[in-house]
Specification:
Elements (H helix, E strand, L loop, with lengths): L6 H25 L26 H12 L2 E6 L2 E6 L2 H9 L2 H4 L6 H5 L13 H14 L2 H4 L1 H18 L4 H18 L9 H15 L5 H4 L14 H30 L6 H9 L9 H32 L1 H14 L15 H13 L9 E2 L4 E3 L2 E3 L4 E4 L1 H5 L43 H18 E5 L14 E2 L5 E2 L4 E5 L2 H12 L2
Length: 514
């Protein structure tokens, strides 16, 4: 948990939680239970495991704890029960098979006072969340209705042209690719450049929401939300105020523009126009319009950052493991040839490229700790008691590095997923990196297809090589990540060149056709 919170709040946390913790413990004893809590690091009186929680990379610490305490790690932070799950089997048993108990969210203070309580990932489980999910599932579970693979393929062709023109800026082109596609899929909005008003606004929203995780202390003492902004140490109120203003404009502006274009007959087909066509009654009133506006406005924030990191991980893997790149290129040359670029029609005949994508998802997991689930009832599992109100965190990082399931887990081996490979019949990373149960990412299929077409077109068109210094020695790759809920990776010094003059001409031809 972050220690970036104001000193005043941190000091108050230790003092003010004593009474709360004692009352909570007393209440639990009154309820009573013969079953023990799951194992975990020893807890101190009152504060529990507060001072054992790492400042960052909690998933790595939890992986180490798991070697001693097992796949279910129970902790308490100042009276708040928390459980970290290191095993896909346990996560499936609880979060999927018992999803009626484990599908809610803890109501964190900063997202609520910061104006983001409406966002789908933040909603507690209930009717509003179900409605959001139904819309997202309808349009993103498959490409048949929204036809998003067409936009993804077109976006990739433009991405290749940008790579051809300025390969040294590959990180900027990667950031732009999912953004362009997601904006088109959701709002029919064409992003012309990196200074697009709505893209800049969305990126600012993403950074603001990320800052919320530095104020976990407010969840220990929610009454602090009423402290005025002028009070010393209450700079979280300034952040919350600015966030509310940003949330309001982001929530409505682009939807309003798309609706205006739709009414004027100039809008491109997208998620918003398809909904407007089906939900506008004879009097011109759009059913559940506010709810729908909430759904669309979160799509960009939820999908673009994760896809960017996934593609940056792909580039890192291609640079670090040139043999995997070579094998993928051999397959693409054999199946697709050199007279055209890959399409989705080729996907079923490219087992190695598909395996490459699976291994990217396992090798460097985008979000090592999934967003927290929250128990709405007390539960019993494997002889342990899991209290009502427990924050449950699936440790996806640990799952992808389980050496009992994935031999040599730190190595990048796409062949493990091929027929006859050691993990061909194992749990695939696609089965857990997108979450569990009623909280599984509704954009899972979109993200998988986006990663595939990016990998196929990039590897088919370019050679990616590690850069060397003046003495001919390889320049170390950048493998430093930032962020907690989503990890962000910067670019590495590298050399990216078209595989031939013919492919360079093809890239220009394809890009100009759209």
């Amino acid at each position: 948990m972050s220690t970036q919170s104001p000193v005043l709040l941190s000091a108050c946390a230790v003092c003010a939680t004593i009474t709360f913790s004692l009352l909570l413990r007393w209440s639990r004893k009154r309820r009573g239970s013969a079953l023990p809590l799951p194992p975990g690091p020893p807890r101190l009186p009152i504060v529990g495991n507060m001072f054992q929680m790492p400042e960052k990379n909690v998933w790595e610490t939890a992986l180490e704890w798991g070697k001693t305490y097992g796949d279910m790690l129970y902790l308490e932070v100042a009276g708040f029960p928390m459980m970290i799950i290191n095993s896909n089997e346990v996560a499936t048993d609880l979060l999927t098979k018992r999803s009626s108990i484990y599908s809610s969210r803890p109501q964190m203070v900063m997202p609520v006072i910061g104006g983001w309580g409406w966002a789908t990932p933040m909603l507690p489980y209930g009717e509003t969340h179900k409605w959001h999910r139904s819309i997202l599932h309808k349009f993103f579970a498959s490409p048949n209705l929204l036809k998003y693979t067409e936009s993804q393929q077109q976006g990739c062709y433009m991405f290749l042209r940008h790579m051809l023109e300025s390969p040294q800026d590959y990180d900027r082109h990667v950031r732009r690719l999912p953004t362009v596609v997601m904006m088109m899929n959701t709002y029919g909005h064409s992003v012309k450049d990196d200074n697009d008003r709505y893209v800049v606004q969305g990126e600012k929203c993403a950074r603001t929401v990320t800052d919320f995780f530095g104020y976990f202390v407010l969840d220990l003492m929610p009454w602090l939300r009423h402290v005025p902004e002028w009070f010393p140490g209450a700079n979280f109120q300034r952040l919350a105020r600015e966030s509310r203003e940003l949330s309001k404009s982001y929530r409505h502006d682009l939807y309003a523009l798309t609706k205006k274009n739709f009414n004027e007959g100039t809008a491109k087909e997208c998620l918003t126009t398809l909904y407007l066509e089906s939900a506008t009654n004879s009097e011109g009133v759009v059913e559940d319009e506010e709810l729908f506006g909430d759904v669309t406005s979160i799509v960009f924030l939820a999908g673009s950052d994760t896809s960017v990191t996934g593609i940056m991980n792909l580039v890192l893997a291609l640079l670090k493991f040139p043999e995997a790149q070579r094998r993928a290129q051999e397959e693409l040359d054999r199946v697709v040839g050199t007279d055209r670029l890959p399409t989705f029609d080729d996907r079923g005949r490219l087992p190695y490229v598909n395996a490459l994508c699976s291994e990217v998802l396992r090798w460097q997991i985008v979000g090592p700790i999934a967003l927290p689930h929250y128990t709405t009832e007390e539960d019993e599992y494997r002889g342990f008691r899991i209290p009502k109100g427990t924050i449950v965190l699936p440790n996806l990082w640990a799952m992808g590095r389980n050496a009992d399931i994935y031999p040599d887990p730190l190595e990048f081996k796409p062949e493990r997923w091929l027929p006859g490979g050691v993990n061909y019949d194992s749990v695939r990373p696609e089965d857990f990196v997108f979450g569990y149960g009623r909280r599984i990412c509704p954009g899972k299929n979109w993200a998988e297809t986006m990663l595939f077409i990016t990998a196929a077109t990039l590897v088919s068109a370019f050679n990616l090589e590690q850069a060397v210094d003046a003495d001919g020695k390889p320049i170390p790759l950048n493998e430093e990540y930032e962020g907690e809920s989503i990890r962000y990776l910067g670019k590495s010094e590298c050399k990216i060149t078209p595989r031939s003059e013919k492919i360079a001409a093809l890239i220009s031809e394809y890009a100009e056709s759209f």
